[in-house]
Amino acid sequence: MLKLSKKTVLALEAVVDIAYNARPEPVQAKEITERQGIPQRYLEQVMQHLVREGILKGVRGPRGGYRLARERRRITVGEIVRVVSRLEANAEDEGGPSELGEKVVRPMIDEALTKMLRDLDGITVEDLCRQAEECAVAGRNTERLDFTI
After folding, report:
1. Residue 80: exposed, middle, or buried by beta-carbon count in 10 A (0-12, 13-18, 19+)?
2. pLDDT, tens digit (0-9, with 9 covering 90-100), for 60-119
3. For the domain that residue 88 is a member of, what is the CATH number?
4. Is 49 a member of any domain?
5. Strand partners, 67
6. Which domain holds residue 95?
7. How many domains would you assign to the chain?
8. Which of 50, 55, 72, 106 allows an S-S link to 125, with CB 3.0 to 4.6 Å?
């Protein structure tokens, strides 16, 4: 079974947490670590890359934190996976593949990953937030704001 890395899963959880718990103030990293149990060392590194790639906005200051850089319906799971994959690829120290690996194994894996990413591009952060609501996942605000006056 092909698995996404732990760092990728944690990044997805963090972005969905920010979208799901959206409010006027940015979501602070410590709130995400408390709710999701994500280690702080993973979170900060990944969040910085997500900011650089235009998925999140970082807000500085005592009430700073993170918010989505775009509408949650415009951010795909595939996009987040690619950001973390680039981060991890830059951190790896790979040796060169063998001829068999280069000509047979790597192309097969690349094709499978391309298909998987295509599928993940069809899933938005909005979709995951809707699923969290359907599953009654507890968020920061258990009561949702109603803007009816």
Report:
1. buried
2. 988 889 999 999 999 999 999 999 998 888 766 566 778 998 999 989 989 999 999 999
3. 1.10.10.10
4. yes
5. 57
6. 6-134
7. 1
8. 72
In a domain, residue 27? The reply is yes
pTM equals: 0.84
Distance CA 131, CA 128 (A): 5
Amino acid at 122: G
| Ramachandran sector of residue 140 (left: φ over 0; alpha: ψ -120 to 50; beta: rest) | alpha
What single string gives the DSSP state of each residue in 14-74? HHHHHHHT--SSPBPHHHHHHHH---HHHHHHHHHHHHHTTSEEEE-STT-EEEESS-GGG
Structure tokens at 36: 């999701």
Structure tokens at 7: 């760092």
Helices (H) and strands (E) in the chain, counts: 7, 2
Strands 65-68 and 56-59: antiparallel
Residue with tokens 């920010």: 18
The answer to whether residue 144 sits within a structural domain is no
How far apart (Å, rounded) are the C-alpha atoms in residues 132 and 148?
23
Distance CA 36, CA 119 (A): 25
- Residue 68 belongs to a domain: yes
